[in-house]
Amino acid sequence: MVDRKTIATYDAKAGDYIKLTKQDGPDASLQAFIDLMPKGGRVLDLGCGPATSSAHMRAAGLIPDPVDASQGMVDLANGTHEIGARLGTFDDIDTVAVYDGVWANFSLLHAPRDMLPTYLAALNRALVTGGVLHVGMKTGQGDLRDTIDRYYTFVTVAELRGLLRDAGFTVNFVKEGEEKGMAGTMDPFVLMRARKHG
Length: 198
Prior knowledge:
This protein is of the alpha/beta class. The strands form two sheets. It has a seven-stranded mixed β-sheet with strand order 3-2-1-4-5-9-8, with helices on both faces. The two termini are 30 Å apart. It is globular and about 40 Å long. Helix content is 33%, strand content 31%.
């Protein structure tokens, strides 16, 4: 299930978004995730945007699979990094025991709340046993469109922890914070890392 207005925003603002994500190296969250991966590990970068994270993972010796529902973002990712980014949505996750890690950094927040259990279960199936999921979400309650027409589903920390548990994950890292995004507002967020049950 894809929200067309959200995708249209990312298509139109791909160039602006890369300015927010451009970094010389991985931030602390991405580095911690990379450090948990086996050498040459395969990682699904779900909602990769301009694939900055995938580029850092590739530089660290991992094999990223960058996927985004925005053609503008896919084109930007490949034009910038020549990284094999491909067009795909949450509904296209159908692999089984392929990835050592899934990097879903502020992508699933665009999914409808009632679909989160389905998508998290699909990510669990896509991971090898013991595989690591990183997920970032904005915290709060309800859903809304921001000032640039992107759809958001907000979750509480307890809600996200429960969703991950129900999908077959064990949460082992939680970080809360606040940051300014592309819409220019300061928003609270949570990052979680979890492992697929053995």
